[in-house]
Amino acid sequence: MLSASIGTPLACMNYLEVVLFIVAVVGVIALGIWKSRGEDTHSESKGASDYFLAGRGLTWWLVGFSLIAANISTEQFVGMSGSAANWLGMAIASYEWMAAITLVLVGFWFLPRFLKAGLYTIPEFLEYRFGGIARLAMAIPAIVTLVFVTTSSVIFSGAKFVSEYYNEVPYLSNLTFMCWAIGIFAALYVFIGGLKACAWTDLIWGAALIVGGAIVMWFAFATLSERSADELILTKVENSQATVEDLEQASPWERFILLNDGTEGEAVAVNGENGSGGKLHMVRPKEDSDLPWTALMIGLWIPNFFYWGLNQYIVQRTLGSKSLAEGQKGIVFAASLKLIVPFVVVIPGILAFNLFSGDLHDSAEKRNNATIERLAEGQVLKVDQAFVETQPETASRILSINAKSSEEGSMIGPEASPEQIALRINNLADKAVKAKPDEKGVLAGTLVGYDYDAAFPILVRNLIKPMPWISWFILAALCGAVISSLASMLNSASTIATMDLYANFTGQTNQAVLVKVGRSFVVLFVILAAIVAPMLNKLESIFAYIQEFQGFISPGILAVFIFGFFSPRTPRWFGVVGIVVNAVAYALFKWWLGPVIVEQGWWYSGEMAFLDRMAICFFIVIFTGVLVTLLAPLDKPVEMPVNDQICLESSKGAKLAGSLVIVTTIALYFIFW
Q1: Distance CA 641, CA 575 (A)
Q2: Section 539-545 average pLDDT
Q3: Can you give the pTM of this predicted structure?
Q4: Do 550 and 303 form a contact (C-beta atoms < 8 A)?
Q5: Has residue 372 been placed in a domain?
Q6: Based on the domain organization, do 433 and 473 belong to the same domain?
Q7: Which residues contact 639 (CB under 8 A, 6 or more apart)?
Q8: Where are the transmembrane segments (predicted)?
Q9: Which residues make Cβ contacts (< 8 Å) with residue 376, sequence separation at least 6?
């Protein structure tokens, strides 16, 4: 501990770790600010371009690494590793490998149109094609999403990592304190440097993240080879036929396969609690609540195309490209790096459960106890099966609480299984909520057996923390990526707020003034995000929270842009109609129509996955667009503006490399099918 006597070896080791960590983070940020010193943010004619788009001078390697560093942060290392530690396993890698294909298509379908129009923001395209109201209909939800969903999520996941890593150190172990510390640090950084500073620091953090993840994976497999087979067998998935003898004779990789895929691949993926089925499969059953195979056909492509092609936070880097060819080469380079990510994020997440399931339980128990302590009279709680298995006495207490609140008896026999007890507790909770429809907060939360979002922090704490000559690098890469991602998000949110809202309504064209306004928005947005971030600790999965929220926005906006690209006679008012129709349809399918369809037995599973809801809403908007185009087509096509200040020649080398990325992705799906 840092509070230990400075003369002890442990204190010296931690002191060394902290010093190297601080020097690395501050040094890289100083490099970014130094590299951005040539940008004239005070210029009345080009200040906004220099601050928000790095003077439109980013080369392919800056674009590529910046895309990866902006995307991969503790949001992935915490959220995606957590989902992998839970029942999804390798299936969660679809977000990465399908993104590789998506990036290639974005580089050759979306980027040429955006650069040709000379855009500052993605909503700006909608004004040129569909009108000012459509621009606002995208800009306002985009700001809300960036501030209250993505930025707050990254602040939370970064603070979650640090507080779990230093779980016994005052202040650093406090989640709320770390949320504010990380947010303020990031705001100061983007306030000074703008996008160019972000791009240069991303160059360092992007490479460091992949190297750091590989180091963690190396040590995880080394620990797996040393761990007792009798202990490891307890984390084996139920449909694996592996035995203790098999594990004793196996190499580290073979142990990983035996525990999670079986001796002959017999541990197929099944719908159920963590551990009920194999985890090394990209294709999940259609009944799966998060990633059914039906979602891989259509649903998952929607958030992928929206995120990589229409999300200001990501696309802003490509809008700052020196030329179309540079942007395309950078995008394809990023796509090739995406193929590596699951090996340094997802696989370590699976290993975290095999190696440290006890620590995951301890972290969950700490959260559960805090939730129970806050429980008010009349409130109820839900549970998962793992909670009943690991904390049977507390589960019995929750059963009594829910029975009292729902005014029913517990009605559960002494021989009931953990699955039956969990089902009864949750049914009583549902009845209590339905009995008090006008009261908010009747359901106080869900108690879980394992804190899966703690998977990666626990890996690093157990494997890397004892080695300060290595741990400082891992900490710097992860925390630096958090700061860099936050800076990029704040820069993007302030760009939209400044250009799509402030400049649009006031008519302000002085770019030096716009930079000052943008910096003011940075301060406002980081305060709002830091307030929301600690509240996210109540969620079971931060990754699912982010993806679920996007369903209200991404299908409609993606459909509208498709018509904007390929249907020049679709009426201008469809831009607003498509976005609104999606939001209404998604809400209906989430809270009313979807549950009704499931209850009537008209759906193929017991729950409509959010990706399936996305697919349904996407096609509803597409159908609406086709209908209005046939009924009320424009007399003449809309003419888009043309930016003649940038070279729009496509890259032949990027096309070839992009084709190789797509072929490799298909091969990986075949291997992990």
Answers
A1: 18
A2: 55
A3: 0.80
A4: yes
A5: no
A6: no
A7: none
A8: 15-33, 53-72, 92-111, 132-159, 171-191, 203-224, 291-310, 331-356, 469-492, 513-536, 542-566, 573-593, 613-632, 653-672
A9: 441, 444
